Automatic annotation (TrEMBL):
Secretion signal, residue range per the UniProt entry: none
Protein name as annotated: Anoctamin-like protein At1g73020
Keyword Transport attributed: no
All copies of domain Anoctamin transmembrane, residue ranges: 189-627
Gene that encodes it: LOC106772987
Organism of origin: Vigna radiata var. radiata
GO CC annotation: membrane
InterPro entries associated with the record: Anoctamin, Anoctamin_TM
Localization terms from the record: Membrane
Membrane topology: Multi-pass membrane protein
GO molecular function annotations of the record: chloride channel activity
């Protein structure tokens, strides 16, 4: 490990402590001094920074310290022969390096940091009395130091820090680099933010590139007057759009598998073995204690006990899903239909504006309340790990947003067949809503950051401690005041990626399900997504704190939601085409209507058959995996044969003696 010990020191974690009024003379009892010494014993490089209102401890971990923590955590890493083996500090050169040349990914480093920070306990033979600002803290034998200080409000927060060198490099090559439109340094994003965020931006970039084809087709339909041929051109456009969506979904799976093969993803990134910022490990689902007792006492009942636990968990998930669906139908659906009906019959634009404002305020409260109820229900499910619980939350909350976003559009399209109003609603949602969402998404965190700085200055002036203008000079204090990358429904199971993926999914459904009514919608979506790539990058790098890495390497439940929207779009666009052909509502089976019905069934067959035609993994990924498996098997076979032959020789020599 000597070759890596000369790496530049980077402080990646920060600990926040309130600034003290009383300084302790005896350092052996000083709480902050003891905490710093314990960090140094663990192997951290420590730097203390005195801020305006708080004190900060910055932590950097040398490779040797991280390697020791990785070995204690039994992290598996990919080796040069393709096998995933437990990490060993002495054999560091046998493991595959990250794209930037480092040994550990950001997710692995974060897990090691949390293990070391929250692994400090009192190993002495007696309790210790620590003092902080005139307050005494009794640190008992075997008690965790950080958790104790957090309970006493001495440690306010532990949070990840930005790496200034890499952050500025990404700002230049990614967030502020508008010339390349959808091209992004995905490998550098993976190295800095982890697999989950890199997968999101890879998905967003590919989705935006693929939008250019239907956007050009839809713009052509809008600019050219086809006259009577429009009833022929629209079905062609509809078929092309559905085929486009089906191909995009399948080719994204290939792209995702190619990225995972290119990155040295360890078991930490794939499985749920990470830590939250609280330091409590989020382990996989374990059998209940009742089952463990049954296994110890009676092996015959093992199968029955596990089956009972499995089906009980499935029943709980089914019960929660049914409760959410029933709530949406009974509570949210009448509210949405009432708003859509009033908007249709009202003539005054002022009253419509007031109605829309009241609706938006009420629906935000309903959605937020539904998200909290969903989180409480999911906590009672025995899902396998945190990512499974997050997927369950995505399905439930998306149902709320689906009803909120589309029920009014369905009302105008399917009940009243008012295509002019339908186009107006689509333009409002696509143009105004997405622009306003982008502005709020980036301006609100900055306003929160500005308000926090104002509060700190105001408190200092109120105490009479500052007469001159207060300047925030330390980088760590500025990062602490920035908002975290959190979801609008809460921080329990999801981070800010929930809102970003939700925005993409709602946009995808809107442009696809009503493609025949407003073909230029794809142009609005393409332009918005090009801006979204850079604004999201700027938000992550400059406006928010560095996100906590997620232990996942796919888009998860969102891919299933996109496929569900494709199925919905086949049905809704066929209905729109049928009403265009049957304006009088006679519903005669004429050649045009018959062709639409046949088209619907053919597209559904194509949707389910295309996944068989195009494999989810590229051939080179399968070949690489097969080669690695063969190499690993050959090496293990040779080592096993040498071990067996050595054992036989030793046995023969002993027998002769």
């Amino acid at each position: 490990m000597n070759e890596h010990e000369n790496e530049e020191r980077v402080f990646e974690m920060g600990v926040v402590i309130p600034r003290r009024v009383i300084q302790e003379k005896d350092e052996s009892c000083d709480c902050v001094h003891v905490l710093v010494k314990e960090f140094e014993k663990v192997g951290f490089e420590v730097e203390r920074v005195i801020g305006i209102a708080d004190e900060f401890i910055k932590l950097a971990a040398p490779l040797e310290t991280l390697g020791r923590a990785a070995a204690e955590l039994q992290i598996k890493k990919r080796t040069l022969i393709g096998m995933d083996l437990l990490f060993e500090v002495e054999e560091v050169e046998a493991f595959v390096k990250q794209p930037d040349g480092s040994i550990f990914s950001w997710c692995e480093r974060f897990q090691c940091y949390c293990h070391l920070i929250y692994g400090i306990v009192n190993n002495s033979k007696s309790a210790k009395v620590l003092k902080f600002d005139g307050k005494e803290v009794n640190w008992k034998i075997g008690e965790n130091l950080i958790l104790k200080l957090e309970s006493e409000n001495i440690v306010k927060q532990v949070f990840p820090l930005h790496d200034e060198k890499k952050r500025k490099k990404l700002l230049k090559s990614w967030a502020l680099h508008w010339c390349h439109f959808t091209n992004q340094p995905i490998d550098e994003i993976y190295t800095y933010f982890g697999a989950k965020i890199a997968i999101y931006f890879a998905f967003l970039g590919m989705y935006t590139r693929w939008l250019l084809f239907p956007a050009a087709f839809g713009l052509t339909l809008q600019l050219i007057d086809f006259g009577s041929l429009k009833l022929v051109v629209l079905p062609v456009f509809f078929v092309m759009v559905i085929l486009w969506a089906i191909m995009f979904s399948q080719f994204w799976k290939r792209k995702n598998s190619a990225l995972l093969a290119r990155w040295p993803i360890s078991s930490v990134d794939i499985t749920d073995g990470g830590y939250k910022i609280t330091g409590r490990k989020e382990s996989s689902w374990q059998p209940p204690m009742e089952l463990m007792k049954v296994l110890e006492s009676d092996r015959i009942k093992e199968k029955e006990a596990f089956q009972k636990s499995e089906w009980l968990g499935r029943f709980m998930r089914f019960r929660n899903d049914a409760f959410i669906i029933f709530s949406i139908i009974c509570l949210q659906l009448p509210f949405e239909l009432a708003y859509a009906h009033l908007y249709e019959i009202l003539d005054s634009d002022i009253i419509k504006f007031v109605l829309t404002a009241v609706y938006l305020f009420a629906i935000q409260y309903i959605t937020k309340m539904g998200g909290k109820v969903s989180v409480k229900l999911i906590m009672k499910e025995n899902n396998e790990n945190t990512e499974k619980r997050a997927d369950s939350l995505v399905y439930k909350v998306f149902g709320l947003y689906f009803m909120q976003t589309y029920i009014g559009i369905f009302y105008h399209a399917l009940l009243h067949r008012n295509f002019s109003t339908l186009r107006q609603v689509l333009i409002q949602r696509l143009l105004l809503s997405e622009v306003l969402e982008n502005l709020l998404e980036n301006s609100l965190p900055y306003l929160k950051y500005t308000y926090k700085k104002y509060r700190v200055r105001h408190k200092k002036r109120a105490k009479g401690e500052a007469r001159e203008k207060i300047q925030f000079t330390s980088r760590v204090e500025k990062e602490y005041l920035k908002p975290p990358y959190s979801a609008s429904i809460g921080e329990d199971l999801e981070d800010g990626l929930f809102d970003d993926f939700l925005e993409l999914a709602l946009q995808f459904g809107m442009i696809l399900m009503f493609a025949c009514a407003f073909p230029p919608a794809f142009v609005f979506a393409a332009v918005n997504n090009i801006m979204e790539i850079r604004t999201d990058a700027l938000k992550l790098l400059a406006i928010l704190r560095r996100p906590v890495p997620r232990a996942a390497a796919t888009v998860g439940a969102w891919l299933n939601i996109f496929q569900f929207l494709i199925l919905m779009s086949i049905c809704t666009n066929c209905a729109l085409l049928a009403w265009l052909y049957d304006e009088k509502g006679k519903w005669k089976i004429e050649p045009g209507l018959a062709a639409i019905l046949i088209m619907e069934h053919v597209l559904l067959l194509i949707k389910f058959g295309f996944s068989r035609f195009v494999p989810e993994e590229p051939a080179w990924v399968r070949a690489t995996r097969a080669k690695r498996n063969t190499q690993a098997q050959d090496m293990c076979s040779k080592k096993l044969l040498r071990t067996i032959s050595g054992v036989d020789k030793n046995f023969g020599e002993k027998k002769l003696n």
